Amino acid sequence: MSTVQVGDVFSMEDENGQEVEIEVLGLVHVDETEYAAVAFSEDVQDETKEDIDVFFLKVEGEEELYEIEEDAEFERVSKAFQELQEEAAEDLN
């Protein structure tokens, strides 16, 4: 089990080699693997919920996050996270 939690902030390099901070917005398990829904910390602070670009990273080890390489894997994770969000919204009603 990882120690990655919602609200954690990590530094990583973007595609231009610039260091950026990302914040964990949610976690989901798919096929016995944990994934983190993350966004750039700056966006989380400055944008409305609808304007934040969310992406998914695979959690391996205690605090290691990796890009999802395969489109099919990304689709499964995206769908699972969307279902989790819909369930949470239903629970609020």
Tell me about this structure.
This protein has 93 residues and is an alpha+beta fold. The protein has one domain (9-92). The chain is 30% helix and 38% strand. It is built from two helices and five strands; from the N terminus they run βββαββα. Strand 2 (19-30) and strand 3 form a beta hairpin. The mean pLDDT is 87. It comes from Chryseomicrobium excrementi. This is DUF1292 domain-containing protein. It holds the Pfam family DUF1292.
Short description:
This protein is of the alpha+beta class. It is built from two helices and five strands, in the order E-E-E-H-E-E-H.
Helix and strand arrangement:
Blueprint: E1 9-13, E2 19-30, E3 33-40, H1 41-46, E4 55-60, E5 64-67, H2 71-92
Antiparallel strand pairs: 1-2, 2-3, 3-4, 4-5
How many β-strands, per DSSP?
5
Written as H for each helix and E for each strand, in order along the chain, the element string is EEEHEEH
Q: How many structural domains in the coordinates?
A: 1
Report Rg.
13 Å
* Beta fraction: 35-45%
Span from first to last CA?
31 Å
Poorly predicted runs are none
Q: Report the total helices.
A: 2
SSE class: alpha+beta
Helix content bin = 25-40%
Oligomer: single chain
Arithmetic mean of pLDDT: 87
> Strand count, sense and closure of the main sheet?
5 strands, antiparallel
Q: Categorize the overall geometry.
A: globular
Q: In which order are the strands of the major sheet placed?
A: 1-2-3-4-5
